UniProtKB/TrEMBL annotation:
Source organism of this protein record: Metabacillus lacus
An example Gene Ontology molecular-function term: phosphatidylglycerophosphatase activity
Full protein name: Phosphatidylglycerophosphatase A
Highest classification ranks of the organism: Bacteria, Bacillati, Bacillota, Bacilli, Bacillales
Classification via Pfam families: PgpA (PF04608)
One GO term (biological process): lipid metabolic process
Length: 160
């Protein structure tokens, strides 16, 4: 595992997101379509998505901006926009699309759905009372789960 992949995986954990948190989102998205789905399948698909360089780049870029915003180290007006997670900003979602894109259009459906429902770890990341800034990370985590779900769905179709 190279430096970029190692750091991307470490930073996720340091920001409070484990691989099994994301696997639970995949389970949430896919359980109704695959009755025999287990957490091991979900974990495996998340792991394969995390191995992609586009995903690692998005993780490092997004978390870096969240952390700098948390520490007040960005310049205005960007600092306030990211700190407040302003609804019309949208760059956090654009960055997440670079992850969703990898496994095709089914990923967008999954991403939209999970972004609206905010199950599991996404609820934690959206809690504005935590004092942490997760403007980018919530979209990135939702996108990783959506991409892993698409990967799982494509593979299931080829084996069923
Ligand atoms: Mg966001």
């Amino acid at each position: 595992m190279d430096e970029v992949e190692l750091r991307a995986r470490e930073w996720l954990e340091e920001r409070g997101v484990t691989q099994s948190d994301i696997a639970e989102l995949v389970y949430f998205l896919q359980k109704k379509y695959h009755p025999n789905l287990d957490m091991q399948d979900c974990m495996e698909n998340v792991d394969r998505v995390l191995a992609k360089r586009e995903v690692q780049n998005a993780i490092l870029s997004g978390i870096q901006l969240d952390v700098l915003a948390e520490q007040g180290q960005l310049q205005e007006p960007l600092l306030s926009i990211i700190q407040k997670d302003e609804g019309l900003y949208g760059v956090d979602e654009i960055l997440a699309f670079s992850i969703v894109n990898i496994y095709g259009s089914i990923g967008f459906t999954n991403y939209g759905y999970i972004d609206k429902e905010k199950p599991g770890i996404l609820g934690f990341l959206n809690d504005k009372e935590s004092g942490m800034c997760h403007t980018f990370l919530d979209d990135i985590v939702g996108a990783i789960a959506a991409a892993a779900s698409s990967r799982l769905a494509h593979r299931a179709q080829n084996t069923e």
